[in-house]
Amino acid sequence: MKRRDFLKSATALAAGAMVPAPAIWSAAKADARSESLLVVSESGPNNLDIHGVGTNVPGYEVSWNCYDRLITHEMKEGPGGVPYYDKDKFKGELADDMTIGDMSATFKLKKNATFQDGTPVTAKDVKWSLDRSVSVGGFPTFQMSAGSLTKPEQFVIVDDHTVRVDFLKKDRLTIPDLAVIVPCVVNSELVKKNATEKDPWGLEYTKQNTAGSGAYRVVKWTAGTEVIMERNDKWVGGPLPKIKRVIWRMVPQAGNRRALLERGDADISYELPNQDFAEMKRDGKVNVVSLPISNGIQYLGMNVTQPPFNNPKVREAVAYAVPYQKIIDAVMFGLANPMFGAAADKATEVKWPQPTKYNTDMAKAKALMAEAGYANGFDTTLSFDLGFAGVNEPMCILIQESLAQIGIRCTINKIPGANWRTELNKKVMPLYVNIFSGWLDYPEYFFYWCYHSGKSIFNTMGYDSPEMDKLIDSSRIAAATGDTATYDSDVKGFVDLAFTDIPRVPLYQPYLNVAMQKNVSGFAYWFHRRLDYRTMVKG
User: Fold this and answer.
1) CA distances (Å), origin 222, targets 11, 66, 185, 202, 250
2) Rounded CA gap, 39 and 59, in Å?
3) CA–CA dist 489, 47 (Å, integer)
4) Which of 328, 283, 381, 311 is nearest to 511 (CA)?
């Protein structure tokens, strides 16, 4: 679509500033405008189903708004007064009542809950959906295992409107894990009608169609171009949203997205370069929210299974060669918390994230390269997700320039956003930048995902350390049993080991930056870093 045509279309859908004369302005049109939200972003979903193979981060946004879960989080006031999910407090979404016992939790469903085609939501649908999440493999199944939810036998139908979840063991992550995006409830009969012998879970159907009971449903999706969602007026998972229609457009050029916002032709955007966010904050034409991403780290990862990054001295050399402050200043424009440069005598804390003691030291980096046997350096590739090019590309250029000074000659590899997760999961890229944010805001959860040698798809470095595994596993047991002393010791232990072995180099804790028109309110921060249209209001 040409920019001119896009602007015409966007204006027709969401802008009132371009209306030429009061004669055509009516109360009905004002209402329609206030009930529609036009979102512009760099990239869009590659799959509408969180259970799908390789579903990307924008796909999470669709799932969150179009599907319900048994429970969700209560909200609290966060930094700057922004509503922020409370990681320790839960309430029902599809569940009308929740009883947590010693080794099980029982959920009574809302009897008036229906799927978007009018079919009642039953315990049968809940069990089928949870069975699906622990059985499809890949990211969904590993996410469920993070809360010790691994077997279909754990999900028991008590009656048509009651489900029990049996615990395999005491695990403080089990209940929080039921509130993330993955354990969504799917219209089982509808999906089964569209399943095949080769695709028993109907993943091909739900890739293209939403089949939930959530507040919105997708009525049109053109991959890479546009997603249109309409409100489900029969939603009972919470207060009926004020926004009736969401038009989500993919606009690859950051300059065009900013122009649409500043002209009033778009309502909300994210994934802009931090320079734009910093300037828009200063200019004050639109509102900009900036919040540190909970349990999140932008990092430089190295494949430790293959030379040369299987050499610890090479990895340490890279850690000393990274141009940390340049990245904070020139790429992030200060909108990030540094994860480097801790004082040499600073004690490790029982928290995550926390900064490493690495700093840019080219002399030390060159010495380590020589010790590793690579005094003349080597050639490699440095990969990044093109779906988030606004940050990734300038960051990779700075890293490429800095590593070249110690002989590491990098060819930059730009991977399309729709393919990024698939390529990352192959665990073959030698050097890459990526972001990981743990949905459950606990140190052991982050490390379970990123450093455990199990089948985690986010241990993209191929890192395998029995000592690390032991510390992570022990910390989870200690957390579940309330053994604070052991827990504290384990957390300090696995943080120290991660910084010593350095399979990935933490760069910074990024901020979630969202720019919106001044008449848009109700933005809430969620662990998944995506928009929740259900609470948003447009004046």
Assistant:
1) 19, 17, 24, 20, 10
2) 15
3) 41
4) 328
- Residue length, the chain? 539
Query: What is the Cα–Cα distance from 217 to 233, expressed in whole angstroms?
Result: 10
Residues 275 and 413: their CA atoms lie apart, in Å, by 24
How does strand 287-292 pair with strand 504-516? antiparallel
CB 74 within 8 A of CB 62: no
237, amino acid identity:
G
Q: Are 503 and 303 in contact (CB under 8 A)?
A: no
Reading the block at residue 143, the tokens are 């996410």
SS3 content of the chain, % helix, strand, coil (to 5): 35, 25, 40
Give the contacts of 130 (CB within 8 A, at least 6 positions apart).
149, 152, 154, 155, 165, 183
CA torsion sign for 165, 169, 175, 178 is negative
pTM for the whole structure? 0.84
CB 256 within 8 A of CB 247: no
Q: 368: number of CA atoms within 13 Å, CB side?
A: 21
Q: Which residues contact 148 (CB under 8 A, 6 or more apart)?
A: 167, 168, 169, 171, 173, 174
User: Can you give the pLDDT of all 539 residues of the chain as single tens digits?
Assistant: 444 443 444 444 333 333 333 333 334 444 567 899 999 998 899 999 999 988 998 999 999 999 999 999 999 999 889 999 999 999 999 999 999 999 999 999 999 999 999 999 999 999 999 999 999 998 999 899 989 999 999 999 999 999 999 999 999 999 999 999 999 999 999 999 999 999 999 999 999 999 999 999 999 999 999 999 999 999 999 999 999 999 999 998 989 999 999 999 999 998 888 999 999 999 999 999 999 999 999 999 999 999 999 999 999 999 999 999 999 999 999 999 999 999 999 999 999 999 999 999 999 999 999 999 999 999 999 999 998 888 899 999 999 999 999 999 999 999 998 899 889 989 999 999 999 999 999 999 999 999 999 878 899 999 999 999 999 999 999 999 999 999 999 999 999 999 999 999 999 999 999 999 999 999 999 999 999 999 999 98
- The alpha carbon of 215 is separated from its chain's Cα centroid by a whole number of angstroms, namely 20
What SS3 state is found at 217? Answer: strand
d(CA 99, CA 103): 11
Strand (E) or helix (H) holding 403: helix 389-404
Q: Is the dihedral of CA 194, 195, 201, 206 positive or negative?
A: negative
> Reduced to 3 states, what is the DSSP secondary structure of residue 124?
helix
> What are φ and ψ of residue 228, in 5° steps?
-120, 125
CA–CA separation, 301 vs 190, rounded Å?
A: 41
**H-type helices in 173-291, by residue range?**
174-177, 188-193, 203-208, 254-262, 274-283
